């Protein structure tokens, strides 16, 4: 039954169809989330109207008591969620309920394998929103009108969630939105008073807008029987209806904090931790910040949503206010409510307001402290590790972006290391320092393209022999991180593949003397190799870093590392050529063989050693065919 006119049927964007399919399959056991999502959207719509009405009171159309109403009809099998918020016009409806605007969606959906498609957590990364209605409904009708427009400008949208929707015009007195779900046979349990009330209290208690449900009372006669025609229906508020962050900390339970997170972050898994603070004095604000338990699919998208929900004196101003947190904390979600900004603040004004910088720096500190506490409290639990595995590579952008908090961030970093030889990044710099050998003055690390390339690098041979720990770095951002993190706890951080090897006092005088003697004895060999390799190398040396490999390549101390070079070259950034230093292991049989060779064999062997060293470090040969040819010549000689 509909009164809509001039109906038109349109197709969903392909991504919507895919998402609907995925959701219906994977979220079956979490299906009650549909109600939270619809209430969340309705509350946002009320917030938006309140904000818009700051400038133009008329938008309320005489009805400024914002509210959400939930009704059901168990005979018809319907549930209705209604709000008197901002509403939508025809274009809004088509854009919001027919497409998904987030960039990267198509790629994300395509990447999901068959098994992953059934995994509720993965689809949850996406934020399911309005479309979750179709988990429980086989037909959804949306009736809406944008506040401030003519009653004739109402819109009706209908869909069975199967590829298309119908949209038509509707005369609608009330502004705001009404969503009617026609429940599937197996979901009719939701058309029930106590079930709905329970869900509202569980999921939406903290929403400031009152959520109301009808209560019908009937007068009784003296015998206790209903008096016919005496029914009176009143709308009762079922949620707490106070903004959660305004309430005193001590009165809020963990479950309430978690439920609020789900509303703010559009996530349906629990956060890892949160930090709720009221600040009074020079700055006046309340912040409630959360660390999510999983990454949104667009964490690395340039225009991915980030930032906090901004309120000024309890009035919602905007979502995703990114000016209050640095980029390297873009995973933090939450709310900021302040008295220090004016109600008509815009994104442009935020960029120039000095108060914003002050709050940003305070929220940054709060976030870092919250992470520190999570690390400390979770010594035995997995929470910090989950955080690190999920967001560690984002936090690694910190020391470069935010020098003033470098030490703090450094304390939060976790690495793989030769101490465990495991790809799990779970060792802190403080752990490393605690384990440093007597006489060791530096923190050593290696950067490679992959964990195995780092772990098996020839550069580590001497360190392993002497039992000196080396951090194994292989994330794309690692070299950039290390270029900004040169010190921790007074110890310098040193790349073992760059510059002269200096083990400090870990080596005794005798060892150093023996090395000098070997270097002298091999002077002639070094000269010959240098001549044979000519322009391909910067220098040839004898080394004592190696115990098992015949040779390795090293870069000068201040040169950009191999990993960063490859990333920049792949991004099309031309870089001046850098020639490696070739270091030879004087104790290796191949080097001894080289010493005894001459003519073409010497030349071939010298080139083979250089090329092998480049391969072992993860590099690409300029002329791989020449390498194979030389190797074959030596093998068949
Ligand atoms: N009750 C409503 N009143 C007004 N606009 C609405 C309402 N419900 C949905 N919308 C509009 O539709 C858009 C899409 O809603 P949807 O729930 O799919 O996603 P979302 O809330 O933006 O984010 P998420 O996918 O993370 O939940 C909203 O951003 C909003 O603009």
From TrEMBL:
The keyword Transferase does not apply. Keywords: ATP-binding, Chaperone, Cytoplasm, Nucleotide-binding, Stress response. NCBIfam families: PRK05218.1. PROSITE patterns: HSP90. HAMAP family: HSP90 (MF_00505). Residues 30-187 form the Histidine kinase/HSP90-like ATPase domain. The gene is htpG. InterPro entries: HATPase_C_sf, HATPase_dom, Heat_shock_protein_90_CS, HSP90_C, Hsp90_fam, Hsp90_N, Ribosomal_Su5_D2-typ_SF. Molecular chaperone. Has ATPase activity. This is Chaperone protein HtpG. Homodimer. Residues 1-347 are annotated as: A. Pfam families: HATPase_c_3 (PF13589), HSP90 (PF00183). Gene3D superfamilies: 3.30.230.80, 3.40.50.11260, Heat shock protein 90, C-terminal domain, Histidine kinase-like ATPase, C-terminal domain. Signal peptide: none annotated. Residues 567-637 are annotated as: C. It is found in: Cytoplasm. The keyword Aminoacyl-tRNA synthetase does not apply. Belongs to the heat shock protein 90 family.
């Amino acid at each position: 039954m509909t009164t809509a006119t001039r109906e038109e049927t349109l197709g969903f964007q392909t991504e919507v169809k895919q998402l609907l399919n995925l959701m219906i399959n994977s979220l079956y056991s979490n299906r009650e989330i549909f109600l939270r999502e619809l209430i969340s959207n309705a509350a946002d719509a009320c917030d938006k109207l309140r904000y818009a009405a700051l400038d133009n009171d008329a938008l309320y159309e005489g009805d400024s008591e914002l509210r959400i109403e939930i009704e059901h009809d168990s005979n018809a099998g319907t549930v209705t969620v209604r709000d008197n918020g901002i509403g939508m016009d025809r274009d809004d409806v088509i854009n919001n309920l027919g497409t998904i605007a987030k960039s990267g969606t198509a790629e994300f959906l395509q990447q999901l394998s068959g098994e992953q498609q059934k995994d509720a957590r993965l689809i949850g990364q996406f934020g399911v929103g309005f479309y979750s209605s179709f988990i429980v409904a086989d037909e959804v009708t949306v009736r809406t009108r944008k506040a401030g427009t003519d009653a004739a400008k109402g819109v009706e949208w209908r869909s069975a969630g199967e590829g298309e929707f119908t949209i038509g015009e509707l005369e609608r007195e009330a502004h705001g939105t009404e969503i009617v779900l026609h429940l599937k046979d197996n979901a009719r349990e939701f058309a029930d008073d106590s079930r709905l009330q329970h869900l509202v209290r569980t999921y939406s208690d903290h929403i400031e807008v009152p959520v109301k449900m009808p209560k019908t009372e009937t007068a009784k006669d003296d015998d206790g029987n209903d008096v016919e025609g005496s029914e009176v229906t009143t709308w009762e508020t079922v949620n707490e209806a106070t903004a959660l962050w305004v309430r005193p900390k001590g009165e809020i339970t963990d479950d309430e904090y978690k439920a609020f997170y789900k509303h703010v972050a559009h996530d349906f898994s629990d956060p890892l931790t949160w930090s709720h603070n009221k600040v009074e004095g020079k700055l006046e604000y309340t912040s409630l910040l959360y660390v999510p338990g999983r990454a949104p699919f667009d964490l690395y998208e340039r225009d991915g949503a980030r930032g906090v929900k901004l309120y000024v004196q309890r009035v919602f101003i905007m979502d995703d206010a990114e000016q209050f947190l640095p980029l390297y904390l873009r995973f933090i979600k939450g709310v900021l409510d302040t008295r220090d900004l004016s109600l008509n603040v815009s994104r442009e004004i935020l960029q120039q307001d000095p108060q914003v910088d002050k709050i940003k720096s305070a929220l940054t500190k709060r976030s870092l402290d919250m992470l520190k506490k999570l690390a400390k409290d979770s010594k035995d639990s997995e929470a910090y590790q989950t955080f690190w595995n999920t967001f560690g590579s984002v936090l690694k952008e910190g020391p470069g972006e935010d020098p003033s908090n470098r030490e703090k961030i450094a304390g939060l970093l976790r690495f793989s290391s030769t101490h465990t030889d495991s790809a799990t990044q779970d060792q802190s710099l403080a752990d490393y320092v605690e384990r440093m050998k007597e006489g060791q003055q530096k923190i050593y690390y290696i950067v490679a393209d992959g964990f195995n390339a780092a772990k098996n690098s020839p550069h580590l041979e001497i360190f392993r022999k002497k039992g000196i720990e080396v951090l194994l770095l292989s994330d794309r951002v690692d070299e950039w991180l290390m270029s900004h993190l040169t010190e921790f706890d007074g110890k310098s951080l040193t790349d073992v593949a760059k510059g002269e090897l200096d083990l400090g006092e870990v080596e005794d005088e005798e060892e150093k003397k023996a090395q000098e003697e070997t270097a002298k004895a091999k002077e002639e060999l070094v000269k010959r190799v240098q001549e044979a390799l000519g322009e391909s190398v910067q220098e040839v040396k004898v080394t004592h870093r190696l115990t098992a490999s015949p040779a390795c390549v090293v870069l000068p101390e201040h040169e950009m590392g191999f990993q960063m070079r490859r990333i920049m070259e792949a991004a099309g950034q031309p870089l001046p050529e850098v020639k490696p230093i070739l270091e030879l292991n004087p104790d290796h049989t191949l080097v001894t063989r080289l010493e005894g060779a001459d003519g073409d064999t010497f030349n071939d062997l010298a080139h083979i050693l250089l090329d092998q060293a480049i391969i072992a470090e993860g590099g690409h040969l300029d002329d791989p065919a020449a390498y194979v040819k030389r190797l074959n010549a030596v093998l068949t000689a």
